[in-house]
Specification:
The structure holds 2 protein chains of 2 kinds. Chain A has 5 domains: 15-153, Glutaredoxin (3-Layer(aba) Sandwich), CATH 3.40.30.10; 188-388, NADH-ubiquinone oxidoreductase 51kDa subunit (Rossmann fold); 399-482, Ubiquitin-like (UB roll) (Roll); 487-576, NADH-ubiquinone oxidoreductase 51kDa subunit, iron-sulphur binding domain (de novo design (two linked rop proteins)); 589-644, Alpha-Beta Plaits (2-Layer Sandwich). Chain A is built from 24 helices and 20 strands. In chain A, strand 14 and strand 15 form a beta hairpin. In chain A, helix 8 packs antiparallel against helix 9 (222-231), helix 8 packs across helix 11 (261-275) and helix 10 (252-259) crosses helix 11 (261-275). Chain A is globular. Mean pLDDT of chain A is 94; it is low at 1-7. Chain B is of the alpha+beta class. Chain B is built from 7 helices and 4 strands. Chain B has helices at residues 3-12, 20-31, 36-46, 50-59, 79-83, 86-97, 139-145, and strands at 71-76, 110-115, 127-129, 132-134. In chain B, a hairpin with a 2-residue loop joins strand 3 and strand 4. In chain B, helix 3 (36-46) packs across helix 4 (50-59) and helix 6 (86-97) packs across helix 7. The radius of gyration of chain B is 17 Å and the shape is elongated. Chain B starts with a helix and ends in a 5-residue tail after the last helix. Classes of the chains: A alpha/beta, B alpha+beta. Chains A and B meet through helix 2, strand 12, strand 16, helix 18 and helix 24 of A and helix 2, helix 4, helix 5 and helix 6 of B.
């Protein structure tokens, strides 16, 4: 994996060296022989990609096949993992879905016989879009493969059709541990151009004109941030990459770090040159061990090749990067808290009347951007602001990565132009709600965001539109909820999260989130009373107004947006003591339908409190005085005989 | 923790107090928790107040001041896992192990904890045991997993 690159130990001094590495990379990515690539990002591994990889490796070894086996990051379609990508000279590139070790071995035989194994294929690729080339890269395909038409083209698959991958351009296409692979797809050529042909001011101007806004959630214009930092006084400047991706349900940063770490490094290098910084930090969640590992490898390789360190590409520009691992505090994703954490203190935010671009890390000018923002930078600088600002909406340019998760058919990471409607995202890319259930809401923006109901499905997604409806972009989590999701429970879930993660510095946030949680908890347990909704609204107002950082200021959003759009659900809990979605266990009664029960003893055996009576051939019954409403019986019943009211 | 081992860690970070978080992470990786005596030594060797070390050790979720079990179970409570029933999985593990979230079984076999999203949202509910991730669980499947660990 990357170790066989002949470029090891060599320093890249100029364009010729880069071109040489590019050739090496191209032979690695598109070799003259069969290459099998297994998607091995965390999502792939947890779906069993490791076992698939091992089985294929053993199969190749046993049969002494001349096949290259490689690993890559994530192609985004998590639902269909493990994904295996087969490159054969003269063939279309075929992505196989839901692979198992057994299928992996069988696939080897099929490849050996020149077959396509159409029935396992997710899609085929016959060309690739490379942002750094004018023309797409078309594969040479031999004649006589007409039956390949049975496999849909990549661009015709519903999940991929409307996507435009800029930040995710390399994820799933390259071996993240190989710098040659990255260079082969145009990587580091932009850095070369920047260091040799562009003045820092020109880069800042490009960034400003591109309309790029910070992808971490707040959406601050990136170019303006860079400009302020460059102009700020200080003997030293820093750039920081915020990879403390804490929003539950959002994992785009993890995927970029795991699948294409060099894109972030190159973005940071370009930004650092523009700002005049020589030291950089990447603050990454420790819960992402593979991201830490792959980024560490990338930094080491870049240092070995002289793409990080002193006198980069012979330009005289110096830049070093250090990785800091987070300690599992959500608030550390806030910029001032993150900087405090890098300095070796607890991650507590401070007031921002003096901006971090003027006084950040160790009181010096510091420019912080999120992973996705940095990954966009090389493409924007290479293709130019005029190319980039044609994508997206008036106020939000470019593309955005979303993690489309929850009650949705196609789960995965998607990158789409800003301004696409929620309906397109959920019904075209996501292909709707599973099990024929009804869509209820989509939650965006993580714990700072809100729930958007079906009547707003035609909302174009960008920074400003989402804020208008009481939610926000956040880092790009999109959690789809169906009729079986209780909105009060969702509000309680986020408030529970926020009360745990509040750093405690501001009373309004520390106590405000706790009190809101207690009220919500009571409501879900049937102890809600008239006036609770109004009290929640009042607490929400105080929490938002009196808190220092964005965590507290936006903490009420999940509560307020659910009250705004789903007030009837709150009222059903409070007045009728009912949970319409049948989620809040304490408001439910579990009974067994004697007509439907097949008396199989399964629930009886597994009931943790022995509340179920009955024998073989005698329909079972639940003793309500013992039942703890854990839901085990409902989960294990093979014939759905457990009724919930 | 032996003095020489701690010294090795401190040296790795050039005795910089700005790397206190990383130092404590490395201590915990090795010892499975943060022993009080080691924290005192860290403060002494870096010439910083023990209070600062203690503040960090209690602020960040990842640290434990008491010994943890041989196997660390983390139930993911990310939003996607939550809407797919992660709470039921957690409740079941709590019942089966007889501990609260954050607790350690008396035989030091397991520590049960929760994590806020590991980004495997398509596989929810997800449980991480040590470094291995298990997806598409329900409470029955999760309970069965425990048998694999001693």
């Amino acid at each position: 994996m990357g170790d066989d690159g002949k470029g090891d130990g060599m320093k890249v001094r100029g364009l010729e060296d880069l071109k040489k590495l590019r050739e090496e990379g191209l032979t690695r990515i598109y070799p003259d022989q069969v290459k099998i690539t297994v998607g091995m990002a965390t999502c792939g591994i947890s779906a069993g990609a490791n076992r698939v990889y091992e089985a294929i490796r053993e199969g190749i070894e046993k049969e002494k096949l001349s096949i290259i086996l490689a690993k890559s990051g994530c192609l985004g379609f998590c639902q269909r993992e493990p994904l295996v990508d087969v490159w054969r000279p003269g063939f279309p590139r075929i992505i196989y879905e839901e692979m198992t070790p057994e299928k992996g071995v069988e696939l080897l035989g099929e490849i050996f016989n020149g077959g396509l194994k159409k029935e396992w294929a997710l899609c085929r690729m016959e060309e690739e879009v490379l942002f750094f080339e004018d023309e797409p890269l078309r594969y040479k395909i031999e004649s006589g493969l007409e039956d390949r038409d049975a496999i849909p083209l990549y661009q015709d698959v519903g999940f991929y059709r409307k996507q435009l991958k800029i930040a995710l351009r390399n994820c799933g296409y390259i071996d993240p541990e190989s710098i040659e692979d990255y260079i082969a797809r145009g990587g580091y050529f932009t850095l070369y151009k920047v260091l040799n042909e562009m003045k820092p001011e020109e880069i800042i101007e490009e960034a400003k004109r591109s309309g790029l806004r910070g992808r971490g959630g707040a959406g601050f214009p990136t170019g303006r941030k860079w400009e302020s930092c460059r102009r700020a006084e200080g003997d030293k400047r820093y750039v920081v990459c915020n990879a403390d991706e804490g929003d539950p349900g959002a994992y785009m940063d993890r995927s970029v770090l795991e699948g294409d770490p060099h894109s972030v490094l190159e973005g940071m290098l370009i930004g650092a040159y523009a700002i005049g910084a020589h030291e950089g930090y990447i603050y990454v969640r420790n819960e992402y061990p593979l991201a830490v590992k792959n980024m560490g490898t990338a930094i080491k390789k870049a240092e070995e090749m002289g793409l990080l360190g002193e006198d980069i590409l012979g330009s005289g520009f110096d830049f070093t990067i250090k990785i800091n691992r987070g300690g599992g505090a959500f608030v550390a994703g806030e910029s001032t808290a993150l900087m405090a954490s890098i300095e070796g203190y607890v991650a507590e935010p401070r007031a921002k009347h003096i901006h971090t671009v003027e006084s950040g890390l160790w009181d010096r000018p510091t420019n912080l951007n999120n992973v996705e923002t940095w990954a966009n930078v090389p493409v924007i600088v290479e293709k130019g602001a005029d190319w980039y600002n044609k994508i997206g909406t008036e106020g939000s340019k470019g593309t955005k990565i979303f993690s489309l998760v929850g009650k949705i058919n196609n789960t995965g990471l998607i990158e789409v132009p800003m301004g696409m409607t929620l309906r397109e995202v959920i019904y075209d890319i996501g292909e709707g709600i599973p099990e024929g259930k009804q869509f209820k809401a989509v939650q965006t923006g993580g714990p700072s965001g809100g729930c958007i109901p079906d009547k707003l499905l035609d909302l174009p997604v960008d920074f400003d539109e989402l804020t208008k409806v009481g939610s926000m972009m956040g880092s790009g989590g999109m959690i789809v909820m169906d009729e079986s999701t209780c909105m009060v429970d969702v509000a309680k879930y986020f408030t529970d999260f926020l009360k745990d993660e509040s750093c405690g510095k501001c009373t309004s946030c520390r106590d405000g989130t706790l009190r809101m949680y207690e009220i919500l908890d009571n409501i879900t347990k049937g102890k809600g009373k008239e006036g609770d909704i109004e009290l929640l609204e009042e607490l929400a107002w105080v929490t938002a107004e009196a808190s220092l950082c964005a965590l507290g200021q936006t903490a009420p959003n999940p509560v307020l947006s659910t009250i705004r759009y789903f007030r009837d659900e709150y009222e059903a809990h409070i007045r009728d003591k009912k949970c319409p979605a049948k989620v809040c266990n304490e408001l439910l009664t579990f009974t067994i339908d004697p007509e439907a029960c097949i008396a199989c003893l399964k629930c009886k055996k597994l009931c943790p409190v022995e509340a179920i009576t009955g024998e073989k051939k005698v329909p079972h019954e639940i003793d309500q005085s013992i039942c703890i409403k854990c839901g085990t019986c409902r989960e294990v019943c093979p014939v759905d005989a457990v009724r919930v009211e | 923790m032996k003095k020489a081992q701690l010294e090795k860690i401190l040296k790795r970070y050039d005795y910089q107090d700005s790397d206190l978080l990383a130092i404590l992470q490395d201590v915990q990786t090795q010892e499975n928790y943060l022993p009080r005596k080691t924290l005192e030594e860290v403060a002494e060797r870096l010439a910083i107040p023990l209070a600062r070390v203690y503040k960090l050790a209690t602020f960040y979720r990842t640290f434990s001041l008491t010994p943890r079990g041989r196997h660390l179970i983390n139930v993911c409570l990310g939003t996607a896992c939550h809407v797919r029933g992660a709470t039921m999985v957690l409740e079941r593990l709590k019942r089966d192990l007889g501990v609260k979230a954050g607790g350690t079984t008396k035989d030091l076999r397991f520590t049960l904890d929760t994590v806020r999203c590991i980004g495997c949202c398509s596989l929810g509910p997800v449980v991480v045991i040590n470094e291995e991730i298990f997806g598409k669980l329900n409470q029955e499947k999760a309970a069965k997993l425990l048998k694999e660990y001693n």
